[in-house]
Amino acid sequence: MLGRKAVAGYLFIAPSIAFLLVFALIPFLFTIYVSLHDWNMLVPLSRARFLGFENYRYLLFEDPLFWQTFRNSVVFALGNVVLTMALSLAVALLLNSRLRLRALWRSAFFMPYVTSSVAIAIVWSNLYHPTYGLFNGVLQFLGLPTLDFTNSPSQAMPSLIATSIWHELGYYMIIFLAGLQSIPGEVYDAAKVDGAGGWQQFWRITLPLLRPTILFVAVIITLSSLQVFDLPFILTNGGPVNSTNTLVLYMYQTAFQFLRMGRATAMAILLFVVVFAMTLIQLRLLRERE
Amino acid sequence: MLKALTPWFEECARKVNVRIVHQTVAFDQLLTKIMTGRLGGQSVDIYHFYNLWLPDFVGSDLLAPPPVDVVDDIKSSYGQGSVEGVTYNGQVWGYPTEVDSYQLIYNKRIFDEAGVDEVPKTWDDVRAAAKRCTKKDSNGKISQAGFMLIKGWDSGVVHPWLSLLWSNGGEFVSKDYSRALFNQQPGVQTLGFEMDLINDGSVNLGFGLEDFVSGKVAMTIMANWWGASLRASSLGIKSFGSAPIPYNDGHESVALQYNWLWGVDKNSPHADMAWKFIECLNSPRKDKASPMGEYLTTGLNALPSRLSDQKALANRINDPFIKPFVDALRNARTEPIIPGAQEIKTSLQKQIEAAWYKQKSPKEALDTAAQEADRILQEKRQ
Amino acid sequence: MSAQLRPSSVFLNALKYLVLSVGAFLMLLPFIWMILASLMTSAEVMARPLVWFPHSPQLENYIRLREVLPLGRMYFNSLFVALTTTLGILLTSSLSGYGFAKFQFPGRDLLFVLVLATIMIPFFVVLIPVFYIVKELGWVNSYWGLIVPNIVTAFGIFLMRQYMLSLPEELLDAARIDGASEFRIYWQIAVPLSAPALSALGILAFVYQWNNFLWPLVVVRSSDMWTIPLGLNSLKVYASSPQVINLQMAGSALAIVPVVLVFLALQRYFVQGIAMTGMKG
Q: What is the CATH number of domain B2-100+257-334?
């Protein structure tokens, strides 16, 4: 028979387990189920037409938009990972020293993160406005040609990435700072005694010791970038010409504008597979290093 | 805005002896709201919706067919285009309310300045006028555009394009709704006309509606409800004019129109009261306008589709800017109400935009959109 | 060892401050412009060459905003939902974290792995079914619908469990000997001892809930249930006149400024919280 403590253990975790069952596990199975049907939510699920793998076949082999949005999500993720990491690491390095007004700098870089992505997207869509935006206003002021930003298929994705970097930089900067500060000072002192210069210290000591943090950050940025919705939804609504249409945005449109729940859930499963695979790969890399 | 309708809601509710509870929903949420309202068994009796959604609603058994006397009233009191606009599968589904049409909208001051004396009528006229009205800044970027192509949302791109297509003798889909026809010669020519404007250098694709309103563009094709923005602009409504859709030589000017309508839920336990309520809202009061008519023309800058309303409210809709839109209704065609219309429209929008941005040739773009459309049409027929 | 001031290090230092200043300015520029533009007339916003400062601050932009948005309602909804959800998250995470950390029972590790597995299920995968469930429960467009689906997060459970592993068993056992019930031990010993982790989790959860957009977008159907992001979203009108730019900026300012002030006051905890989650990862 279970002891009193064991029963208590079950009771403590029971509410959460029940919740996760209802709001995570069962919906997950439900998503898979719906993805095998054609369902528009206007009719009861029992009347939905069974399609087998038709939704998947269409998305993977016939729908150009699926691959385009997939590519867009990947490009967005890549741009984010590389640039956000580099910049946030750079700022963290700068802040990781005796500095006056350190809290001030830190606040300035971190502030964008606490603000809502909707508010940010609205501000930035106005900054980017080709005729009335601040950026083009400054360019004109300097006598330079103006840019189209979110109005041009070629400039929209870089603009989106730029906004995203600005938004998230501070968060990763803090993580890197914590990582940097956990490197004991003696290591650097020893290196200085050996005659290592600043640059060498960075490559030989800082980077290797920071590897777990770097990988951790890379994983999070990738995962969240692949799932991005708010920013493209408000800033560009996927345009122009689907140049900033991401997978989750396309999924939302498919579900709530075209009423194709089956296809939307199939998309969700496909993206889940990608996300899951990426996480596993990166976790393995992490484990190897340790 | 719906506040203005409330007194009439209450009046008609009293007449029919029902209690009305109403909800306003923003347009981009409306379709989802209706669809999810059904799901949870939340009963909504009456819907006010965009007629493009008829095929989905009818196909999902959402709507109740109106009683015969209501259908007769609708057929006799509304214009041909509007009746067509609320008909699907041979059945009339509700009272048309707001009707919107498209016209060529132009900036009078720019025309005067550039010496454009006559409002352009044909496509060639438009091209010539657009060239004259375009100005560039020192960096070669267009600071004042001859023509604006609206982009970014489906109706903004497709409605003007369809109007131009029809004004070139083209067709959107086959009569039996089985395949797309918009990628045939007339369609390619229509997109070609828009490409001509772009290649002439008369179009700045970076411009949006705000730029027209602030006086940076000479011409565009847009709907009557936009008059509200023009009215509120610093230039004032008198700086703008409207004229028939430009046609290609040898054809007629045809504008696109679309409707909103009142319909009743199929499972509504109060169906006949619902219909009486709607009928009351849409019927004229003693030779004057109906409540809906009043509501639509005050501040909404919308056009009433009921013929008696158009007469009764003539002074309101005779304003020089609005009048051409009303006249156009006589020869207007309703946006095709076909299953999957929303998807086809979005796909067509993206392809047209791709052509504008020179990612594809007009023929390629339209063929791709037509393939998509055919696939959707075939699928929905099952 | 004394540090010697070499000219090049003075130069490097100055460079560091310069780079930081430029960086900080660029980070803050959008906020600055947002506030300035919110106080301009639409003519000033659209003026070319660029107008940097409003001639006279147009506070009426903010007043006009009240006619377009149900501001009070929006703030209340955001605050109520975020607070309640956060409290719920703290409660459920600490309860489960404690259970997993301090108790032995059959299947414990398997269940924990399952909990972790749900972290791998991104929200968008379950968006549609969860919406369907919420619909069937009649919770669409209600506080229930906004709060309940967010009230448990596997990440929170993971965080609290990690932290609680390090709570001293002796303290807990001593309380048991004294005859305290398991729940009392949890509530009066484990929870207070976990304050750092709880505050970290709490801050992160609050910020996330406050800024949450996709779920409210799907669940909310009328403007009286708008949270702040939803209200702002409605400002994004596509058939707009230029007059709207300064209004949009005013709206964004109203959404951003309070959060920034709270952040500035509590920054130390923010930073601690993020650092803590970073280390645990």
A: 3.40.190.10
Sign of the CA dihedral with B190 first, then B191, B192, and B196 last: positive
Domain with CATH 1.10.3720.10 in chain C: 69-235
pLDDT for residue B24 is more than 70: no
In C19-48, the residues whose Cβ lies within 8 Å of chain A are 19-20, 23-24, 27-31, 33-34, 37, 45-46, 48
Q: Do A258 and B39 lie within an 8 Å CB cutoff?
A: no
Average pLDDT of span C120-137: 85
Contacts of B213 in chain A (CB under 8 A): none
pLDDT band at A287 (very low <50, low <70, confident <90, very high): low
* DSSP H stretches of helix in chain C: 7-38, 42-46, 60-68, 71-102, 108-119, 123-136, 143-147, 154-164, 169-177, 182-185, 191-193, 195-210, 214-219, 228-235, 244-280
Residue B26 is predicted with a pLDDT of: 61
Average pLDDT over residues B66-72: 89
Residues of C in contact with B26 (CB under 8 A): 223, 234
CB contact under 8 A, A118 and C213: yes
CB spacing of B153 vs C240 below 8 angstroms:
no
Full-model pTM: 0.84
Considering CB atoms only, which of C24, C115, C233 is closest to A234?
C233
B378 and A CB contact within 8 Å: no
| Position C196 confidence tier, pLDDT thresholds 50, 70, 90 | confident
Q: What is the pLDDT of residues B75-116, one digit of tens each?
A: 988 888 888 889 988 899 998 888 889 999 999 999 999 999
Predicted-complex ipTM score: 0.83
Q: What is the DSSP letter of B49?
A: E
Residue extent(s) of CATH 3.40.190.10 domains in chain B: 2-100+257-334, 102-255+338-381
Residues of B in contact with C241 (CB under 8 A): 209-210, 213-214, 229, 232-233
Interface test with A, best of C227, C252, C257 (most A CBs within 10 A): C252
Could you give the domains of chain A?
63-289 (1.10.3720.10)
Contact at CB, A124 and C37, closer than 8 angstroms: no
Q: Is the pLDDT of residue B209 over 90?
A: no
Class of domain C69-235: mainly alpha
The answer to whether the CB atoms of B211 and A145 lie below 8 A apart is no
Q: How far apart are CA A115 and CA C253, in angstroms?
A: 10
Q: Taking all residues of chain A, what is their mean pLDDT, rounded to a whole number?
A: 87
pLDDT at C244 over 70: yes
Task: Give yes or no for a cis peptide into B269 (omega within 30° of 0).
Answer: no
Those residues with Cβ within 8 angstroms of residue A140's Cβ, 6 or more apart along the chain or in another chain: A146, C48, C49, C50
Residue in B closest to A143 by C-alpha: B139
CATH code that applies to domain B102-255+338-381: 3.40.190.10
**Nearest CB to B151 within list A145, A240, A257:** A240
DSSP classification of residue B151: -
The nearest CA of chain B is from the CA of C146 a distance in Å of: 16
Strand-pairing partners, residue B66, are none
* The total number of residues written for chain C in this structure: 281
Find the CB nearest C16 among A94, A108, A118. A94
Any chains having at least 3 CB pairs less than 8 A from chain B are A, C
Q: Is C155 helix (H, G, I), strand (E, B) or coil?
A: helix
CA distance C264 to C23: 19
Q: What is the pLDDT of residues C32-69, one digit of tens each?
A: 999 988 888 877 777 777 777 888 888 888 888 887 78
Q: What is the pLDDT of residue A2?
A: 67
- Nearest CA to CA, how far is B285 from chain C (Å)? 32
Instruction: Locate C261 and state its tokens.
Output: 């002030």
HSE, CB side, 13 Å, CA atoms: give it for residue B244.
20
